[in-house]
Amino acid sequence: MLQGKTIVLGVCGGIAAYKAATLTSKLTQAGATVRVIMTESAVQFVAPLTFQTLSRHHVFVDTFDEKDASVVSHINLADSADLMLIAPATANIIGKLALGLGDDMLSTTLLAATAPIWVAPAMNVHMYANPAVMHNMQTLLNRGVRFIEPGEGQLACGYVGKGRLAEPEEIVAAIVRHFTAEVPRLEGRRVLVTAGGTVERIDPVRYITNDSSGKMGYAIAAEAVRMGAKVTLVSGPTALSAPEGVELIPVQSALDMREAVLSRLDTHDLIIKAAAVADYRPASIAKQKIKKKSDAMTLELVKNPDILQEIGTLKTHQFVIGFAAETERLDEHAMDKLKRKNCDFVVGNDVSQAGAGFSGDTNVVRIYDSNGLVEALPIQSKNDVARRLLELAADRLHPDEGES
Ligand code: PMT
Description:
Layout: E1 6-11, H1 17-29, E2 33-38, H2 40-45, H3 48-55, H4 73-80, E3 83-89, H5 91-99, H6 105-112, E4 117-121, H7 125-129, H8 131-142, E5 146-147, E6 151-154, E7 160-164, H9 168-180, E8 190-195, E9 200-203, E10 206-208, H10 215-226, E11 230-235, E12 246-250, H11 254-262, E13 270-273, E14 280-282, E15 301-303, H12 307-314, E16 319-326, H13 330-340, E17 345-350, E18 362-369, E19 372-381, H14 382-396
Helix pairs in contact: 1-3, 1-9, 4-6, 5-8, 10-14
The structure holds ligand PMT.
Ligand PMT binds near residues 216 and 358.
């Protein structure tokens, strides 16, 4: 599964370094060439010979211990990498990577790398929750670095909580997914994505809208193109540029969005409704700017059509994914929306949670089907959420329904 891929594995100084030996073995068995860099601290826990024997390659520790005079090792290693993986990653390497520091073999190689970087943290529960560490991880997420969440349980320091390195099998599965996702899996598919908030006019200068930036929907549209689909993006007003290769249909109101989506329903086979559609609109739009008169003013609102619910009723062959933006009882509300709106998946996000929902570059989502939870995705970039969502959807699309 990883044949032909070179993975540069950075091992940092923590007790979980021993698990990196199993990880090296599993990555090698999956066909990858694994080149290991250990920090000086990692060497205190496991001998380089362990990794050398498992990877069948020299293990790098000291930047200046150049074994081959024809190359500069940290540049050569960085250039050779299809993927950089740090496991276990300490708070120290996460901080250095966030700040762009290069003071040892691993950090300089990371600075020189252009390959995707994956980080599997392992540390004490309070270190992991430390605002400085959280901030550094957020910075890296915003730069496209991917994280494999640590597990919860008994930690070597005696505490019980979050901070235990993900199991080697989980890390290998994430890396395999990364590479298999590079292979288009939506070729011949027509995907329609909605994004952004709708704008419901009150008068020529005023309107009702919401906090949706469009980032979630635009990330889905961009990923769907990358996976080989033809993509239509129906978008409320946003500050974003349309992703390369997408057909953009700009709309304003929920009624505009309804028309744009329903008129294209038949020609698409995957519909993803990430837009935040206004549930209500002003009963009438004043032709002229409304003048200030009395101390109070009542604005009459009428219900907008529920576009997703209509799609759920009208769908024939389409796979339909709705979103649920909730602030409480996420599982319950998301499942209720899935059933009421006849969706195949609902992506629930608790928009009151840090790093989730509106405007930011990250999200934390739970994906459901009619049987319940399919997958819970920890905090990650909206691009990564989009990629995983599309992978899951691609697995469920009927094999014969795409265009040839
Ligand atoms: O755009 P970002 O800043 O990146 O933020 C992303 C997001 C928070 C907007 C996104 O992740 C999200 O949750 N989108 C759905 C927001 C929403 O309107 O949720 P809802 O629970 O109110 O609606 C449920 C579903 O019904 C949604 O798929 C919505 O598009 C759809 N709907 C709702 C009302 C309506 N009249 N018509 C609809 O189609």
